[in-house]
Design goal:
- This protein has 121 residues and is mostly helical.
- The protein is built from three helices and no strands.
- 48% of the residues lie in helices and 0% in strands.
- It is globular, with a radius of gyration of 17 Å.
- It starts with a helix and ends in a 44-residue tail after the last helix.
């Protein structure tokens, strides 16, 4: 149980390092309030990624269950919202209001598109 919690903590730190790549994980502000602002922004971005992943994992699990895939508690216990391979940390970002409320469509696993729609992520 301790090992599992250690793995979760390490995954959280790995995600935070990827989000905080611009300054190589270094606090660059020379005063305490600036450092707190930097850390607060990091936590906000980290929480946004975890929320995004949690919503889409939930939607994917519901879709799998609706398609007849046996979704077991053992399978669900292995899922983590701390994954980030699908997120583009580099590049250009466009923030536009979605045309309809709610989540965007899930990627079709049979389409051959391994990256998904990375412009919107």
């Amino acid at each position: 149980m301790i090992g599992a919690q250690l793995n979760v903590t390490e995954a959280r730190h790995r995600l935070a390092r990827n989000i905080f790549f611009g300054q190589r994980g270094e606090l660059r502000q020379h005063y305490r309030e600036g450092m707190e602002d930097q850390l607060g922004a990091l936590v906000l971005a980290l929480n946004a990624v975890v929320l995004f992943n949690s919503l889409y994992i939930d939607a994917a699990v519901k879709q799998l269950a609706a398609d007849g895939f046996p979704v077991t508690d053992d399978l669900l216990a292995r899922l983590s919202p701390l994954q980030f391979d699908h997120i583009n940390f580099l590049g250009r970002y466009a923030f536009a209001r979605p045309s309809a409320p709610g989540l965007g469509p899930l990627r079709d696993p049979h389409s051959g598109d391994k990256t998904g729609d990375s412009e919107d992520e």
